[in-house]
Amino acid sequence: MSKVQSSRRWFWSSSISFSLVLLPLLLAIGAFSSYLDQAQWSSYVTDTYTWRVVWFSWWQASLSTIISLSASVLVARALARRQYFMGRWLLLRCFSVALVVPSIIAVFGIILLHGKYGYFNQLWQWLGGQPHSYVYGLTGILLAHVFFNLPLATRIVLQRLDAINGETWRLSSQLGMTSMDLWRHIEWPHIKGVLPQLAALVFALCFTSFAIVMTLGGGPKATTIEVAIFQAIRFDFDIAKAVYLSLLQVVFCGSILWVGLRLGRPIDMFASLETSVRNMRPDLKPIFGIVRDAVVLLLATLLVLLPLLAVVVAGLNTAWAEVLLDVRLWSAFSNSLWVALASASLSLLMAAGLLLAQRHWRERYTSAALAVEWMGSVILVVPPLVLATGLFIGLSPHVNVFAINLYIVVLINALMGLPYMLRVLSVAYLQIGRDYDRLCSSLGVQGWHRLRHVEWPILRKPIGLALALVAAMSAGDLGVVALFGSPDIQTLPLLMYQRLGSYQSDAAGVTAVVLLGLCLAIFVVLERLLGGPSDKL
């Protein structure tokens, strides 16, 4: 293939990706700008309810971030110390599963455990206490956020701790350092560099949380900006208010992520957790440390495992036959499967074009390459529901958005998965360019032959993991589907949410098991089919 043909291939591939990323954003921006003159900004600025929503959004996200990061440090240190304990395998796999569990399933499991008639209240009543409801409101939101963010934060902190070399531990053992000395002089200097970005990421995820707050919020006192945007469109049809809240959301999310990028170093969210045993640490033998680590690891395992077990147990009820024979379940199942596979494929197409452009510009135009990287993470600044709001406003005058709702859901889910796709693929893809570009050019290996013999063997595992993550997250998404969903076209998360809202607990339990099985099957099949056999989930 000639250089001209290669240049054309790069140009068209990157142009398609840029268009898929930028056009929805430009359409949303244009839709928002058309309502700027109509919006009664003074009434919104002075509205006490709006600022109460803003305050609660910041408060719950701050508490969730502090609890998740504090607990992740304790769990990561315990995992770094106790690499021989029997439950390590189970805990790490529970953490992997938690990354792809749909929000609505985690919420359902937490309700089953902590609700007024949940297992914990039943145990408390058996011990002589009076059952009481505490899961709806701030407490329930914090429980759900920690369920999702603790595994992610622990993986990142553990990665940094496992990067400490053996010579450091050997020297610390010779010096007789205590556990506190190790923390102050060795562990803390290694993890403090990733904490600002990690805190910004967790804060942004909690700040833009939708399904969790929508289900567990419990009323106007526990509402976030994301939920208020949804209510302004679907219930009040106050587009101007939705625009105002969306702009607030974008400003806040952009500020949070900018601060995190300025203060911390880049983090790898999906690095391997394979480690070598550090048996030379001086803090392994004290009995107090052994008991402390055992308690920490047991609580972390129960925190993640119990809600999933509660969902499975709730799904084993007498409504199985009725629910499985319901045509709505299988219609929602097929819609969820199609959305998952289409979103992951489209996200991979976007990522491939952006990575091509980044590799092409990396040496000659550093600022352009950095702009491409920022473009791939724009969904973290413009949350999915805000983008969906802009598309809803922009498309409504021209088309029936409810007739094409699944296509819009696919597009937004693909953009939502793009940061994860780029994070998994970028290191390997850019490394290929540095190591093999000149060799392939000198040998004339281009096009299909380069992809088959050079790039695919290296990119196979990252592509399998990236597709599995994005597909599983898309299958369990509720936020965008809730905005565009209709009685005729549903997905499994929306069907489950509706059954929970109408107090069909048995039917919701069966639906939850089907949805959980779908997400895990998608993740395992895609990762193993494309990435090859692996002993890791």
Structure description:
The chain is mainly alpha-helical and 537 residues long. Helices cover 76% and strands 0% of the residues. Helix 3 (48-81) packs across helix 10 and helix 7 (138-162) packs antiparallel against helix 10 (195-207). It is globular and about 75 Å long. The chain starts with a helix and ends in a 6-residue tail after the last helix.
Secondary structure blueprint with pairings:
Elements: H1 3-33, H2 41-45, H3 48-81, H4 88-98, H5 103-114, H6 119-126, H7 138-162, H8 166-175, H9 179-191, H10 195-207, H11 211-216, H12 225-234, H13 239-263, H14 287-315, H15 320-324, H16 327-361, H17 366-376, H18 378-381, H19 384-395, H20 405-443, H21 447-475, H22 479-484, H23 492-501, H24 505-531
Helix pairs in contact: 1-16, 1-19, 3-7, 3-10, 3-14, 4-7, 4-14, 5-7, 5-14, 7-10, 10-13, 12-13, 13-19, 14-24, 16-17, 16-20, 16-21, 16-23, 16-24, 19-20, 20-21, 21-24, 23-24
Structural class: mainly alpha
Low-confidence blocks of residues: 1-6
Estimate what percentage of residues fall within beta strands. Answer: under 5%
**Given the C-alpha coordinates, what overall shape results?**
globular
How many angstroms does the end-to-end distance come to? 39 Å
Features:
537 residues
Task: Summarize this entry quickly.
The chain is mainly α. It has helices at 3-33, 41-45, 48-81, 88-98, 103-114, 119-126, 138-162, 166-175, 179-191, 195-207, 211-216, 225-234, 239-263, 287-315, 320-324, 327-361, 366-376, 378-381, 384-395, 405-443, 447-475, 479-484, 492-501, 505-531.
